[in-house]
Amino acid sequence: MDPSPTVAIVGKPNVGKSTLFNSIIGKRHAVIAEEAGTTRDRVSQKTEMNGYEVILVDTGGIFYGKKKDIESDIQAQAKTAINEADIILFVVDISKNLTVDDFTAANILRKSKKNIILVGNKSDNPEIEKNIFNIYELGFEKPIPVSAIHKTGIDKVKKEIIKKFDELKINKRKKEIPENLINICILGKPNAGKSSLVNAFIGSEKVIVSETPGTTRDVTDTEISYDNEKFNLIDTAGLRKRGKRSRGIEKFSTLRALNSLERSDIVVLLIDAGEGITKQDTHIAQQVLETEKGLIIVVNKIDLFKEKEKMRNNIISSLMRKFSFLSWAPVVFVSAKNKKNIFQIFKIAEKIINERKKRIQTSELNDFLQKITQKHLPASSKIKKPKFMYGSQVDTDPPKFLLFFKNAKNLHFTYPRFIENEIRKKYGFEGTAISIKIKEKAGKISHQ
Q1: Is residue 14 situated within a structural domain?
Q2: Which of 75, 281, 320, 413 is the most buried (most CB within 10 A)?
Q3: What domain range includes position 212?
Q4: Does one domain contain both 343 and 407?
């Protein structure tokens, strides 16, 4: 259990909870839009406040009446966040009159017996701020007027949080950044089972799971330990092709997912076994390849098939055809629903991290490259034939190689792929992209 104190932001839909969340942590993390109910999952982020390491949690809105399907899940997520919190920021929209949803949220919070800080958001001018006295009807202490979008009043909110920490006698703790944390980004098309996989790992319902495609809009981070290693699972919104993305929330969610891809070490590309390999999967795979990350292809929902061996063979055959450019990526068949084979992902991830850190000595690499280039001379239709001169591994994580050729501009475009395949046969690098750049001895890079 994380000993850091938890602060949950709660209120009815569209009162500015996510904007307040972003203003407090000092960056855009939660998805923000005019549409009510944008935040569905509990989104959490660690932040520092006056020496305290704080877990700040954004929640979906609380509203009146019994709802169906995903709306009830949203309310359940908000109530779970309340139960887990040490302090709650109860946010109301000061620019509008109180509604039944405000009073519903207030009743839930009173019953929780938690420390409540009432925040009157959208207090953008003195006239509107006069309305702050109306929210005394909710039955809490003096509210703090803020404008989350303009970041006014945020310092007062933080000071009140620190005051509550002192009253609760919560100890300050320096923020610890895990040195060996492995960031695993879970990507896939909508409804491939990304959130179900996260829930299977953590054994709880931190992330909403729904049969409705596109449930996850925010990015959620979940830190867990397995086999003495620490992993951060980054659950993302489903990625569609560029032409299929609608404007607004879905576009923001897609950008957030792509940012998560950038900060990850390894990507789990989740494929729905029931649908097979689609063009959408291929498109996402191309995006992963461009970032040069580690990659595990995970085929989910194998529990749906009676003839599992036949299904495996069909999918592997399809992968060989459609993902020929990712032949180095390991494939794992899982059932997130039944938690079958899921922890194999962590074992493979550890191996990939080691492969990404692997370095080949320059002398050994040059001996090897001289042999393979002599055995398979570079093909060219030009009179001046290319010739390998020397090369070295210039970086790790991902492994990067710089090779010098005479007449490099005359190399056939397939030759770098040949060199990559030979390097992989000899040295492995399983599960990670590698970069090979070919350069003229005294000129610019010719191939990549």
Answers
A1: yes
A2: 281
A3: 182-356
A4: no
Structurally, the chain folds into a number of domains equal to: 3
Q: In whole angstroms, give the CA distance from residue 165 to residue 162.
A: 5
24 and 100, same structural domain?
yes
Global confidence as pTM: 0.61
Residues 193 and 329 in one domain: yes
Q: What pLDDT does 205 receive?
A: 59
Q: Count H helices, E strands: the chain?
A: 12, 16
pLDDT of residue 381: 61
pLDDT value at position 407? Answer: 87
Sheet order of strands, 144-145 included: 43-49, 52-58, 6-10, 87-93, 115-121, 144-145
Report the chain's mean pLDDT, rounded to a whole number: 80
* DSSP state string for 28-69: --S---SSTT---S-EEEEEEETTEEEEEEE-PPP-SS---T
Residue 365's pLDDT is what?
Answer: 95
Q: What is the tens place of the pLDDT at every residue in 370-391?
A: 999 998 887 666 678 888 999 9
- Residue 185 backbone class (left: φ over 0; alpha: ψ -120 to 50; beta: rest): beta
Percentage helix, strand, coil for the chain under 3-state DSSP, each rounded to 5: 35, 25, 40
User: Are 276 and 185 in contact, with CB atoms under 8 Å apart?
Assistant: no
Strand partners, 226: 229
Q: Which residue has the higher pLDDT, 200 or 209?
A: 200
State how far the Cα of 70 lies from the Cα of 59, in Å rounded to an integer: 14
Q: Which residues of 20-44 are buried (b: 16+ CB within 10 A; e: fewer)?
A: bbbbbbeebbbbbbeeebbbbbbbb
Contact 237, 253 (CB under 8 A): yes
Contact 220, 42 (CB under 8 A): yes
Q: Is 80 exceeded by the pLDDT of residue 249?
A: no
Write the CA distances from 441 to 73, 341, 445, integer angstroms: 61, 49, 9
pLDDT at 431 over 60: yes
Q: Who wins on pLDDT, 108 or 174?
A: 108
Q: How far apart are CA 357 and CA 440, in angstroms?
A: 27
* Cβ neighbour number for residue 261 with a 10 Å cutoff: 20
Question: Are 204 and 299 found together in one domain?
Answer: yes
Residues 14 and 134 in one domain: yes
Is pLDDT at 416 greater than 80 in this prediction?
yes
CATH number at residue 402: 3.30.300.20
CATH of the domain at 251: 3.40.50.300
Q: Is residue 388 assigned to a domain? A: yes
Q: Report yes or no on 174 lying in a domain.
A: no
Structural domain includes residue 190: yes
Query: CA–CA separation, 83 vs 66, rounded Å?
Result: 20
